[in-house]
Amino acid sequence: xxxxxxxxxxxxxxxxxxxxxxxxxxxxxxxxxxxxxxxxxxxxxxxxxxxxxxxxxxxxxxxxxxxxxxxxxxxxxxxxxxxxxxxxxxxxxxxxxxxxxxxxxxxxxxxxxxxxxxxxxxxxxxxxxxxxxxxxxxxxxxxxxxxxxxxxxxxxxxxxxxxxxxxxxxxxxxxxxxxxxxxxxxxxxxxxxxxxxxxxxxxxxxxxxxxxxxxxxxxxxxxxxxxxxxxxxxxxxxxxxxxxxxxxx
Length: 249
Ligand SMILES: [Mg+2]
Prior knowledge:
Layout: E1 17-20, H1 31-36, H2 40-51, H3 57-68, H4 72-84, H5 90-99, E2 103-111, H6 112-121, E3 129-132, E4 134-136, E5 142-145, H7 156-167, E6 173-177, H8 180-184, E7 191-195, H9 202-207, E8 210-212, H10 221-224, H11 227-232, H12 240-248
Parallel strand pairs: 1-2, 1-6, 2-3, 6-7, 7-8
Antiparallel strand pairs: 4-5
Helix pairs in contact: 4-6
The structure holds magnesium ion.
């Protein structure tokens, strides 16, 4: 991965689109580690080196899955753990952003069969969830993954965002994520928020201009919305919990 240390640009809100990473951002787990069982020390070491930017993602992506060979049922279970370990106010933040007219996406290097149901549970449409497809046989046993997915390799997130921007109007983008693959996409966003509410990755924090260290999505409210956008929803009881949370933090 790039050793580029040039400062990344930052523009204040408003944004048209807010994009979240999934693992260690919307949810407090790494899905792949949840699947690893007895293999977890080997898997964790590979994941950490990829997210710190020491190893290109494509070197570890297929290797981890080939070790684990998750079944369809395993991925359904991970979807449940994602939801159980969702960060506080994650659904509330999605609702607030959507009420403020933002498009909300998930762009994840996780497996779609686990990420998509979790994201839908947070109020994000299935079509707005971009993750890596895995394949199964008729008995639900693992038969590989989409090796052409840009999200399974380093440099893939900015590539995907550029392609989405060409298709439709993403407008000004804010991206929230914890990992090196998120930081890579900062070049195509108006704002990148280094999310350290679950894991604080030094290499990502060092380059990011905007940081969040709270394990609560309410802390992102002032980083993603203007004062006017927040005030316009302050009387709506549907957003009372997250706005009170944001005011307390
Ligand atoms: Mg992550």
